[in-house]
Amino acid sequence: MELSTNKEMQVPIEPAEEKAVSPWLEAWRSFRKNKLAVIGTFIVLFFVLLAIFAPYIAPEGINEQKLTTSDRLQAPSSEYWFGTDDFGRDVFSRVVYGSRISLWVGFLAVIGSIVIGCLLGIVAGYYGKWVDSVISRFFDILLAFPSILLAIAIVAVLGPSLRNALIAIAIINIPNFGRLIRSRVLSVKQEEFIMAAKAVGMKNSRILFHHVMPNSIAPIIVQGTLAIATAIIEAAALGFLGLGAEAPNPEWGKMLSDARAFLTQAPWTLFFPGLAIVLTVLGFNLMGDGLRDALDPRMKN
Amino acid sequence: MSEVLLKVDKLKKYFPITGGVLGRKVGEVKAVDDVSFFVNKGETLGLVGESGCGKSTTGRVLMRLLEPTEGTVEFEGQDLTKLKAEDMRRMRKEIQMVFQDPFASLNPRHTVEKILEEPLIVHGVKDKEERKRRVREMLEVVGLNSYHAKRYPHQFSGGQRQRIGIARALMTKPKLIIADEPVSALDVSIQSQVLNLLEDLQKEFQLTYIFIAHDLGVVKHISDRVGVMYLGRLVEITEADKLYEKPLHPYTKALLASIPIPDPDVQQEKELLKGDLPSPANPPLGCAFHTRCSACMEVCKTTRPELVEIEPSHFAACHLYNK
């Protein structure tokens, strides 16, 4: 049932070039062209692989103490690539195992804050009114504390351990995600296609999950990647203050604080964990910036 | 007299203006103020007026995308304003909307197929194959190709997108379509194609249209009857021919005079509108148009004229004819 008046409108396009370019695919294409972002991704991938295959890469375990003078505080050599610390432990092995802890804390803390932050943010943004006020004020309260102080306070209450440090980092990041998604939802809600969805007769839940959510997710991915970097730094900071990982665990921040005493004697015990932190954080930041450029709606068209 | 499909009675939509720290109500914008009209089955009612006169708001209130402040909207004898949210949602199967901006009204993350399929999903067409078949049929009906189904909105031109928007409105086989400036975002060359499409679809599916526009030329092309709105009020409503040949209200006259004539030699006696549209938050007393009216009398400044039948089926709200 074709209408004659509209035939001239039909654009003759050969079905051969019919290819659906989804917005995600397009983003991936522009991401691939960004050299720095690709370098960042490789750094991140490198550390992820390091973490997964740590037992095969590290020559020693994390706590193999060798308390003889010939093994303690040794400079980097062919035997100990990154030297040894005051207990005669191989720094290289500890840095490799440390990547497991840092990435684990980074990912889990960020996922935790994304889940809780998004839930609160979506509810606040979509339903508005007093719900929004209550949730937004809760975010304001969280943001009113300097984040690292808040983390320290939370760990102080829960007791120092890696798990509690992770929880603290997740909590201090909640308002960042919550506010971000709230503002996205607020602006997406005004879009005409949301009005159109309502006009078509969709239920609120469908509009929320099929229309609002997919259009709000891009900045969360960007912010999430960048937040992993800060979470790793925060975990290291808590570790450095003795509020994170406990004694034999090779958490990078903890290693830094242990190495402090031997700064002049054995700078390598400080240098390599520090370098590992810098590189991971740099990797995530480069990747996050690249994602932002690729996913930013303003870059389209 | 043909059958009345939609009857709007004393419809009002006031938006509160809040101010101060506590968000107290300090005033209200009378976006739609006491509007009454009816639409017959199978006809096209055009609604025209300047930007901000409340015509789009009227369209949205009719569908209860915005809740009306007062008044009733009777669709096939049923008062839409009294329906529960879930019943209203179901009722939207019968009343659909075409939006102004085809670049904003389609979800950029959905394929055309998904966009067109969703109305069927939410109105209970469970069979996936049937949905897909109907999507492809509808694409052909609105002058696109069925293989366009897998594409995303950004791969189409403005005119094509608006066809998708129209197709979406048609998916549920509605009786009434509210078209909110469906062509004003399009190039002039595309406008007529889309208007022709709308006319053809009307014949094919026995549709009733409420066609909202600010362009009298476009409205003349498509409407059977035309209502003219000014500052939230309906000032004149009648058959399209009558309105264009013998406008009664001074505002309608001024609007008609402002249509450009594509001939540089024609000397027009123009009675052009002076001044700006007054703020709907603080409309003038009496007749809302009296501040810009060339035939303003004393009574216009104090008493608000009612919309009355001045000639058979020709309604106007103006004191000039109330004697």
From TrEMBL, chain A:
The chain crosses the membrane at residues 36-58, 101-126, 138-159, 165-181, 220-245, 265-288. InterPro entries: BP-dependent_transpt_permease (IPR050366), MetI-like (IPR000515), MetI-like_sf (IPR035906), OppC_N (IPR025966). Residues 99-288 form the ABC transmembrane type-1 domain. It is found in: Cell membrane. One of its GO terms (cellular component) is plasma membrane. Keywords: Cell membrane, Membrane, Transmembrane, Transmembrane helix, Transport. Its main location: membrane. The keyword RNA-binding does not apply. PANTHER family: D,D-DIPEPTIDE TRANSPORT SYSTEM PERMEASE PROTEIN DDPC-RELATED (PTHR43386:SF1), OLIGOPEPTIDE TRANSPORT SYSTEM PERMEASE PROTEIN APPC (PTHR43386). Belongs to the binding-protein-dependent transport system permease family. This is ABC transporter permease.
Automatic annotation (TrEMBL), chain B:
GO terms for biological process: peptide transport; transmembrane transport. Keywords: ATP-binding, Nucleotide-binding, Transport. Gene3D superfamilies: P-loop containing nucleotide triphosphate hydrolases. It comes from the Bacteria. One of its GO terms (molecular function) is ATP binding. Residues 6-256 form the ABC transporter domain. Signal peptide: none annotated. Belongs to the ABC transporter superfamily. This is Dipeptide ABC transporter ATP-binding protein. It comes from Robertmurraya kyonggiensis.
